[in-house]
Amino acid sequence: MTDRRLTAGEAFAAALPGGRWSQDDAVVDAHRLDRSGWHPPGRPLGVAFARTVDDVRAVLREAVARGVPVTVRGAGTGLAGGAAAPDGAVILDLAGMNRIRELSVADAVAVVEPGVITDDLDRAARAVGLTYSPDPASSAISTVGGNIATNAGGLRCAKYGVTRESVLGLDVVLADGELVSTGRRTVKGVAGYDLTGLFVGSEGTLGVVVGATLRLRPAPRRTVTLAAFFDSFGAAVDAVTEIMATGIVVAMAELLDGPTMRAVDAATGSDLATSGQAFLLVQTDGAGAGDEADAVEAVLRGRARAVRRSADTTDPAAAELLAARRAALPALERIGRVLIEDIAVPRSRLARAAARIAEIGADTGVQIFTIAHAADGNLHPIIVVDRTGGAGGPAGETDEIPAEAWKAADLIFQTALDLGGTVTGEHGIGALKRRWLGAELGTTNHSLQQRLRRLFDPTGILSPGRGL
Amino acid sequence: MTDRRLTAGEAFAAALPGGRWSQDDAVVDAHRLDRSGWHPPGRPLGVAFARTVDDVRAVLREAVARGVPVTVRGAGTGLAGGAAAPDGAVILDLAGMNRIRELSVADAVAVVEPGVITDDLDRAARAVGLTYSPDPASSAISTVGGNIATNAGGLRCAKYGVTRESVLGLDVVLADGELVSTGRRTVKGVAGYDLTGLFVGSEGTLGVVVGATLRLRPAPRRTVTLAAFFDSFGAAVDAVTEIMATGIVVAMAELLDGPTMRAVDAATGSDLATSGQAFLLVQTDGAGAGDEADAVEAVLRGRARAVRRSADTTDPAAAELLAARRAALPALERIGRVLIEDIAVPRSRLARAAARIAEIGADTGVQIFTIAHAADGNLHPIIVVDRTGGAGGPAGETDEIPAEAWKAADLIFQTALDLGGTVTGEHGIGALKRRWLGAELGTTNHSLQQRLRRLFDPTGILSPGRGL
């Protein structure tokens, strides 16, 4: 199969002619990490810049023949170390496979390559009256393929579901280089097992997604934005609970805690924290957006210290209300190095989870700021650590996550499990959450999943030490 | 493991004491078939009436030890022969495991046993302001477990998705008797592979679902029903396309063709067919139901021969409009024995599929009546055959499906595949569609799924000859 007279580097160069294989130090360094901040030990072998399905097949065949691990990479925006390449790995970069092959208004379907930027797809869909609903916070820079690998969530999934709910079918190159097509172009279909759903969220461990048939939805004609300030995080959660009890499915319910509000104020000169200890942003959309916003506003006025409302998406007030949410992460990044955690709990446990996270911060002395997708029970406790401590990495940053931050993260994950939740709502297991996976899944489930993984990848070349 | 001095019947009786095992002819006959009308050859061994998870585990352990096939059964409303038990099989009846264990308003979640009747769950949810969205036409008599086994669709999935979109987690007894819990109680969660999705729609071939954590949704406060008559099926499809282009997600879009309208008229004394050749029923729901109905009505008035509209669900006019759809199947059952087919095509191909089905009826001389879930591109071509022809079965009915009906079905499935669709939108492969599965999936996919099946069930006791 492979030519044994060649070194591994030479063999991959031969498989991907025309400069699409590089072992250059600067190129490898630019592609070896994701946004988790985690630096795996050792050094990847090189970067394969795939342009076609056949490129991907050639790389995987060579990798299997030589037992070389493969790390698949989109834009590298993952937060769990899934795309942080291990020692000796081929980094399979799919960013260049970025064509929107088809956008069908009649079928409300897009057929894309995996490297398409999420927002680019949504923009193309909106130009014809449709929308691609999944909107992870990274959508301006992340790829659809990466979103599929992690089953990315986002803000709008309160109403429109996670990435899984928008994937109708996939083209996947299996570990042995075979190409398989799963799913279909129709909205419904039950012929055979749901392999599409199995590949979504599998974090590059079962195969390499090289194409996707995606469901588009009608772009909502109208969106109304409301914001409210509360005396406490718990009071804001109670308001969300009451809104949901009215029967309204909001398009977004984003919640910032007091520390995050103060960080935004410090960064932007706003004065959020003078109005309360929790900031809630709600959107309603569609034909009933106005009526729904009226009902939401009535709930908020009964519970909040202050309420603001925009007339429509085109209203400058809407952008202003959204700005506080958008400013949160940049504001925290000014303070130090951010570790974005990601747990989800049953909705009734949201306030308790947030209170426990605040206690964990106090107990461990670690700064924790909490943002939540409140309608989904999905919390992002953001741990901010000193940028200059530890062992020292590129640009003076540390490679190491301080022990007290791990301790806080451990307590946060334990909280999620104690409350009947999960250690990852939308970011994935990657490399960094593997130690908690067994506790969440239980032995029977975990072992079944490991056998499943071996079935798809008997030689273990796909993302070793990542995901499951 | 098993006591070899016992016969298989004695062993199962010992595993399920207290009369929960029967080999009585009348009991076996009452439980051996589903609603497909298909009689498999041979005779099942007996019926195991499970009441607990441990009952299911005991049955599977005994079945594996003796190599006895197991057919899992809910209410037996399947239409593809999936629950039609083969020769020598244990029929594992879960209808007695029918408790709603929990219904949480705060988390919008229900935890149920598999034998709960679908409508019973929805009724319980509506009593607290919530709803269980999946509504297969059989919801008054089918079980949640059966819906999960086939990933059942329904009328409302135009807006709320298929069964899969309402299943958060499962308890499953694997072939070896091990119990595994998948998924979670949270809306979001990406720890590990989506085993939940893999079990949904697996038709009893990967394990036995003994518990489910289900997502409930707010019950819509208002529902508006509209009906319209068109000169042709194609004109009605064009109206649906235009409605969807307005950005409105309708809660229901049911379409009856001319032959079905005439059958309803003959059965009920209505005069649908005097108003047109296609009948379209549309519902809008939620806070924007009124505004959305206005927009739908405007489209319908521009294209239909006649339009009717109900004020609300409580309006008697709504029930009257729905009655035509509800009367369709009983009306066809008066004419003869019905074989309900189930294909789905990309929405843009819906009219072409319907036209081709009409041609197939004319070419083969087989009576075919078509009902469609139009928003999903899901068509039910209903083949009606003579009740008295063929080999003769119980109560004078034939066991055999006439050759020309198979021929027509074959052409219908070929049409679905030619148009980029699927041979089953929501009913499953069962026993009767296996011969078309390979053509739909392709060799690589099919073989991968077969290996997956063997991983879960190495001895092949679960639903042999069914599903995949």
From TrEMBL, chains A, B:
Signal peptide: none annotated. Residues 40-219 form the FAD-binding PCMH-type domain. Its cofactor is FAD. InterPro entries: FAD-bd_oxidored_4_C, FAD-bd_PCMH, FAD-bd_PCMH-like_sf, FAD-bd_PCMH_sub2, FAD-linked_Oxase-like_C, FAD-linked_OxidoTrans_Type4, Oxid_FAD_bind_N, Vanillyl_alc_oxidase_C-sub2. Coiled coil: none annotated. Keywords: FAD, Flavoprotein, Oxidoreductase. Pfam families: FAD-oxidase_C (PF02913), FAD_binding_4 (PF01565). GO terms for molecular function: FAD binding; oxidoreductase activity. The keyword Nucleotide-binding does not apply. This is FAD-linked oxidase. It comes from Parafrankia soli. The lineage of its organism: Bacteria, Bacillati, Actinomycetota, Actinomycetes, Frankiales.
